[in-house]
Amino acid sequence: MQKPNIYLDIDGVILANEDYLSIGAEEFIKYAVENFDVYWLTTHCTESDATHAINYVMRAGNESLRPHLERLIPTSWVEHKTEAIDFSKPFLWFDDDCYLGERRDLEKNNAFNSWVEVDLRNYPDQLQREIKLLEGFVE
Ligand SMILES: [Mg+2]
Question: What CA–CA distance (Å, rounded) separates 137 from 4?
């Protein structure tokens, strides 16, 4: 099984709110960057510069998280996050939102199931549990 690329949103995924990481976020990020190619896919990184994204997350994280965040690959997109997704490779996109144009792009590429809907309101420890999903791709 080919390892998927990982695309990661910030608000509602890594961050439960502006001040707190979600449960398991640090562990999830560390496991992801150690085992996968992980890309930012967030409004905090739209022009291939992750500086703001990292600083934004670091307001809630402790310093030990920074080197792991620095391993995420920045992306560039304008209107839809799906512009930054490489559809020629398998991927998992962790996001709490998927807007109409993005849904359309996913469906067009037969990849709707690659969106992992994160719903921290109902499942506050979801990210912690998603580590199991990632583990399934790692030998
Ligand atoms: Mg979000």
Answer: 8
